[in-house]
Amino acid sequence: MQYPIYLDHNATTPVDPRVLETMLPYFTQHFGNAASRTHVFGLKAEDAVAHARQQLADLLGASPVELVFTGGATESINLALKGVFEANQHRGNHIITVQTEHKAVLDVCEHLAQLGADITYLQPDADGLITPEQVTAAMTPATVLVSVMWANNETGTIQPIAAIAERVHDQGALFHTDATQAVGKLPIDLGQTKIDLLSLSGHKLYAPKGIGALYVRKKTPLIAQQDGGRHERGRRSGTLNVPGIVALGKAAELAQAAMATEAPRLAVLRDRLERGILAHFPDVRINGSQMHRLPNTTNLAFPNVDGEALLMSLNEIAVSNGSACTAASTDPSHVLKALGLSDDLAYASVRFSLGRHTTEADIDKAIQHVISVVEQRSVSLLK
Ligand SMILES: *Cc1c(COP(=O)(O)O)cnc(C)c1O
Question: Which of 67, 83, 258, 272 has its CA 20 to 30 A from that of 40?
Answer without folding.
Answer: 67
